[in-house]
Amino acid sequence: MEQAVLLFWKERNALVHDGEEENKVVDRMNHEMFQSRCALLMMSLGAAAATIASKNE
Fold first, then answer.
1. 29-57 residue pLDDT tens
2. H-state helical runs in the chain
3. Left, alpha or beta for 19 (phi > 0: left; psi -120 to 50: alpha)?
């Protein structure tokens, strides 16, 4: 988790330094992190559903 936070700030600082507006950079990065978390959640739920289904057979 700490590495993800450090990576987030490192990328944010690089993009803001390149002239992008800070709010736009942070909004986009937050959206990307949200999408990644949703994808991980869906994979976890799929794995849990598969495990439950296999135990019910």
1. 888 888 888 888 999 999 999 999 999 87
2. 2-17, 22-56
3. left
